[in-house]
Design goal:
- The chain is an alpha+beta fold.
- The chain is built from 22 helices and 29 strands.
- The strands form 6 sheets. Strands 1, 2, 3, 4, 5 and 6 form a 6-stranded antiparallel beta sheet that branches. Strands 7, 8, 9, 10, 11 and 12 form a 6-stranded antiparallel beta sheet that branches. Strands 14-13-17-16-15 form a 5-stranded antiparallel beta sheet.
- Strand 3 (187-192) and strand 4 (198-203) form a beta hairpin.
- Helix 13 (540-570) crosses helix 17 (697-707), helix 14 (583-600) packs parallel to helix 15 and helix 19 (785-794) packs parallel to helix 20 (811-821).
- The chain is elongated and about 195 Å long.
Length: 875
């Protein structure tokens, strides 16, 4: 039994080993391929690996042969199944490998095409990772000045304009939160060029996702749209300007589509139609038209469409009914707007203007034209209209008064009716007419013609041009008035005026000569009388005589000065010198100058000064003193008993100085008071004999007051006295009155110098020498202009005192010669020392090259001051 079991076990083991060897062979062939690829060792290893467990199981479970067979059958089946699965997996692996190789090939080809496209594209292609760091940049990045490799790893956000970055980040943040985001959003941004300028770019970024759907980067193609943006800005500016002009225009600007529906209406529609623009937009354009004008206006618009005249305006007029129901006349200028590609009319644009007033004016003009024709037919003046060729188109009936039939005159040329001497001027007149130059008027438009009787007739024409609707000059309308008699009268008046002017010139020359002839001897009288008064060793009676001489000479000088002042006023050569002064002290000092005269006549000189004169004022006190002194001396002169009262005050509201002089004298009748302020005029001739005077004093006062911007007036009753009052502007001063220098401190000293005194009158030369005798001055005398020139050639002078009126070479000629020929004295101060003291004479001195003017009679202080000033300036 034991042997049998052992036998069976042995046989079973051998069978199992053999089966395992065969199975290992098959398994090796299936798994490893060709049988040459295995070795005995491999077979033994596989057999042990496969058969060992089986034998172990069989032995451990003590299986019988049937179980072994069943197990072996199961193993064979499992082997077959494993072999089939292995074959299937191998085929799948082969197919997968083929697909992978094909996909790789296609990917390589796609990559090549993609890179070729990126390298050749004008747009900039960028690929970034999810954080925005650049992974790839196409060569076209050189548009921005960068090399492609220079941007690798750089953040794209660093190249975007700061003002655009937040907007882009916000947009992408919202997009990334959307799981379905796949790009497709157009983005415009500014990207910085390498040189720092900003370039507008347009792109449509797309996400790059991994197999799990996560965004791992972005791809974008950037296109330069800088030029387009500039165009858009220009278009926006143009549109803005258009809208601004439309919004501010007084005319109504509107647009409507091809169906006549309004798409835009400017705000000025409120003024023209009474509608807000919003009420009209979307409405037919004919809504505001008067029903009777819709058809005609529509036909005009259709004619414009048929003509195809795009951009050209076709003016039309129609009546509009406003929102309030009133009717207005409107002038419109519609024009077509077409599609530039198809040429079809797509829109109308219109500019409408209110011409109601113009229509009313035209109606009034037509009515006026009718009345004008009636007036023209009745007018004594000749009304004529002719064209630019001079051909007469209309003549009024007044032409019959000069023997011409209007019907026969029409069609003829105006030149046919002129004197031959006027033809050249008429040709120039017609040329100026055609050129649009201003036409002559008044005396420049007087024409001479010949009447039927052969006598000359002069017509004055008031001409105006006639223009057509386009503004072109087409003719002239002239109103011709017979001025023959008037011209004769004017010729007579001109002759009389020339005679009067000659008389005025003669009078001026007489005044100048009189002033010179009186001043010349008066120079010696006043000068030497003054020197006599200064002599301490004169007998008392001689001192009194010298004083009388000085007083008489001063009175005579006052008359001459009146003439001189009046001449200056007539020539408007009075120059004002406003200064700060104390009005109270000024009025008191002025009154004191006349007090001696009043006392001598037994008159009381009263002074009333208002408290308002406590502040300093600004005015020409010298001229005001001249007026007050003239009024005071006149009051004393024409008052035999009683008093003379001087009143002064200041009006702070009007800033004026008010002065009046009241007397108890003879008084003046009201009908004669106006003559007082006229030149060379007094109440009657007897006053001149009784009281003296030239009749210039009050005329000078009036002239000075008015020259200072004030007024002077008179209130008088015969036998009850007179009151002269005046006021002049005198604003308050913000600075105190300057304290005048004392007479001692004002004493003038002259440095040692050499002076040339030129005068044909020996007395005058002697007087100057006497006046300067107290100083270290060398005096050289010359009695004529030629002697002065010779002296100036021979030596140098510090000052030259030059008389003007001398025989032979006068002072002006001598001055010009010295300035030219005497080298040593070309710049020496030359002071005119002359009795020619009228404004024109003083101006002539300065124009001749003299530096200053000293009027005769010579005031010693003025002489010394002028010499001192000019020698100091020359030094």
């Amino acid at each position: 039994m034991l042997a049998r079991k052992l036998y069976l076990s042995t046989v079973t083991c051998a069978a199992v080993v053999a089966f395992a060897l065969g199975l290992s062979y098959l398994f090796t062939v299936v798994l490893l391929g060709s049988p040459q690829t295995y070795t005995p060792v491999t077979t033994t290893f596989v057999a042990i690996l496969v058969g060992g467990p089986v034998i172990f199981v069989l032995i451990s479970q003590r299986l019988d042969a049937a179980q072994v067979r069943d197990n072996l059958a199961a193993i064979v089946q499992e082997k077959d199944r494993a072999a089939a699965e292995s074959t299937e997996r191998r085929e799948e692996a082969r197919l997968a490998q083929a697909r992978a190789e094909d996909a790789l090939l296609k990917l390589q080809q796609s990559e090549q095409r993609y890179r070729l496209l990126a390298d050749c594209a004008s747009d900039i292609i960028l690929r970034t990772d999810a954080s925005g760091r650049i992974e790839f940049a196409s060569p076209s990045i050189r548009q921005l000045g960068f090399a492609p490799e220079a941007l690798s790893g750089r953040l794209l956000s660093g190249m975007i304009h700061p003002n655009d970055l937040k907007r882009i980040e916000a947009a992408f943040g919202a997009s990334l939160a959307d799981s379905s985001f796949d790009g497709g959003h157009l983005v415009e941004t500014r990207v910085q060029h390498i040189d720092g300028r900003w370039v507008w770019m347009e792109s449509m970024p797309a996400p790059v996702r991994n197999p799990e759907g996560e965004i791992i980067g972005f791809v974008a193609a950037l296109r330069d749209i800088t030029d387009r943006k500039a165009i858009e800005r220009n278009l926006a500016a143009v549109d803005s300007k258009f809208r601004m002009m439309a919004e501010s225009a007084t005319d109504v600007i509107s647009r409507c589509d091809i169906n006549g529906i309004l798409t835009y209406v400017s705000p000025s529609a409120r003024q023209l139609y009474g509608y807000d623009p919003e009420e009209l937009i979307g409405q037919p354009a004919f809504r505001v038209f008067h029903p009777d004008d819709v058809q005609s206006t529509g036909e005009n618009l259709r004619a414009l469409i048929r003509s195809g005249a795009t951009g050209q305006q076709a003016r039309t007029e129609y009546r509009a009914i406003t929102k309030s129901g009133t009717i207005k006349w409107v002038e419109a200028a519609p024009f077509l707007i077409t599609d530039p590609e198809t040429g079809r009319v797509v829109e109308f644009q219109d500019i409408a203007r209110d011409i109601t007033d113009r229509k009313l004016l035209a109606a009034e003009l037509a009515d006026s034209e009718r009345r004008y024709r009636i007036l023209a037919e009745q007018s004594p003046d000749i009304i004529i209209r002719y064209n630019t060729e001079g051909v007469i188109e209309y003549v009024s009936a007044a032409a019959r008064n000069y023997g011409a039939d209007p019907d026969e005159v029409i069609g003829r040329n105006v030149a046919d009716f002129l004197e031959t001497t006027e033809l050249v001027r008429n040709d120039a007149f017609m040329r100026n007419l055609i050129a649009g130059r201003p036409l002559p008027q008044g005396d420049q438009n007087i024409w001479r013609t010949i009447g039927n009787d052969g006598a000359p007739i002069e017509f004055e024409g008031a001409s105006s041009t006639v223009v057509d609707d386009d503004g072109e000059i087409v003719g002239v309308i002239s109103v011709l008035r017979d001025v023959t008699a008037r011209r004769a009268l004017e010729d007579e008046l001109r002759a009389k005026r020339a005679e009067a002017e000659a008389g005025a010139k003669a009078k001026s020359q007489f005044l100048a000569n009189m002033s010179h002839e009186i001043r010349t001897p008066l120079t010696g009288v006043i000068g030497f009388a003054g020197l006599l008064e200064q002599m301490s060793d004169l007998p008392q009676e001689a001192q009194r005589f010298a004083s009388r001489i000085s007083t008489s000479a001063a009175a005579l000088l006052l008359v001459v000065n009146d003439v001189l002042d009046f001449s200056r006023l007539e020539a408007n050569q009075i120059e004002l010198d406003p200064q700060v002064f104390d009005p109270r002290a000024f009025v008191e000092a002025t009154a004191d100058l006349v007090r001696h005269q009043a006392t001598a006549k037994g008159l009381e000189l009263a002074l009333t000064i208002d408290d308002s004169l406590g502040k300093p004022l600004i005015a020409d006190s010298a001229r005001i003193r001249q007026v007050i002194l003239n009024l005071l001396t006149n009051a004393v002169k024409f008052t035999d008993q009683g008093r003379v009262t001087l009143r002064a005050g200041w009006n702070p509201e009007e800033q004026i100085l008010e002065v009046s002089v009241q007397d108890t004298g003879i008084g003046i009748p009201e009908d004669l008071s106006g003559r007082l302020f006229q030149r060379f005029s007094q109440i009657d001739g007897s006053n001149t004999r009784r009281y003296g005077g030239t009749g210039l004093g009050l005329a000078i006062c009036k002239g000075l007051v008015e020259h200072m911007g004030g007024e002077i007036a008179l209130d008088s009753q015969p036998g009850a006295g007179s009151t002269f009052s005046f006021h002049v502007p005198a604003p308050a001063a913000d600075v105190p009155v300057a304290t005048p220098a004392s007479s001692q401190s004002a004493r003038i000293d002259l440095n040692p110098m050499r002076i040339l005194v030129v005068d044909d009158v020996a007395v005058n030369r002697e007087l100057v020498r006497a006046m300067l005798s107290a100083f270290d001055v060398e005096i050289i005398e010359a009695s004529s202009g030629s002697e002065a020139l010779e002296a100036a050639k021979g030596m140098t002078f510090d000052v030259i005192l030059m008389d003007l009126q001398m025989p032979g070479m006068d002072g002006i000629a001598a001055t010009a010669a010295i300035r030219t020929l005497a080298h040593a004295n070309r710049t020496t101060p030359i002071l005119a020392l002359s009795a020619n003291a009228l404004p024109a004479q003083v101006e002539a001195c300065l124009m001749a090259g003299m530096d200053d003017h000293i009027a005769k009679p010579i005031d010693p202080r003025t002489l010394l001051t002028k010499i001192s000033d000019w020698t100091a300036a020359a030094a």
